[in-house]
Amino acid sequence: MQSLRWPLRQARDIVWAGGVIAYPTEAVFGLGCDPLAANAVERILAMKSRDAGKGFILIASRIEQLLPFLAPLKAGVRRTLDASWPGPVTWVVPAADAVPIELTGGRETLAVRVTAHPGARALCDATGMALVSTSANLSGHAPARSALQVRARLSAEVDYVVPGRTGPQRKPTEIREALTGKILRAG
């Protein structure tokens, strides 16, 4: 394994231990954890006062990190995803049967993205997995766009804030339905 800078090692170790981190993404700071760490996912829901029915986005550095969470993809859907990634498009795709309900919000689909943000990609590479990604804020409030804002708003509840800058996007990523191409949230 390659040598990791201290912040990535720290974040990796916290994620591996079932903790919650905040990290920069394309437009905002996100809250994240191991998607299969039920206690960490529940902590994120609680710290955001988030409705569990909303589900979460999973981000990854490559599609292979997402495949265990997805139902088998039709070739046309896979080509569509591959053509937009890495990039700021989140796709809602059919979820694998075993995906925890907390991730899907009770739906048969899951929102996923192969991020183009270099820090978020490095984080997924360091942990070796896809990560939960939801904006670092209380539900209904403006998302944090800096580590300082995360610390001011959520520092008591987050185990580690990964240093770095968000990407150049001013709006959260676009969300599209993979089977129809329908835009669910403009980017």
Architecture overview:
The chain is built from 6 helices and 9 strands; from the N terminus they run αββαβαβαβαβαβββ. The protein has a single domain (6-138, 154-179), classed as DHBP synthase, CATH 3.90.870. The radius of gyration is 15 Å and the shape is globular. A 9-stranded mixed sheet has the order 7-1-2-6-3-5-4-8-9. With 187 residues, it is of the alpha/beta class. The model has no long low-confidence stretch (mean pLDDT 94).
Helix and strand topology:
Layout: H1 6-16, E1 21-24, E2 29-32, H2 38-48, E3 57-60, H3 75-84, E4 89-94, H4 101-104, E5 109-114, H5 118-127, E6 131-135, H6 147-154, E7 160-161, E8 174-177, E9 183-185
Helix pairs in contact: 1-5
**In the residues, how many domains can be counted?**
1
Mean pLDDT: 94
Helical percent range? 25-40%
Low-confidence stretches: none
> Order of SSEs, N→C?
HEEHEHEHEHEHEEE
Give the neighbour order of strands across the main sheet.
Answer: 7-1-2-6-3-5-4-8-9
- End-to-end CA span: 36 Å
User: CATH topology, anyone?
Assistant: DHBP synthase
The total of beta strands comes to 9
Major beta-sheet overview: 9 strands, mixed
CATH class: Alpha Beta
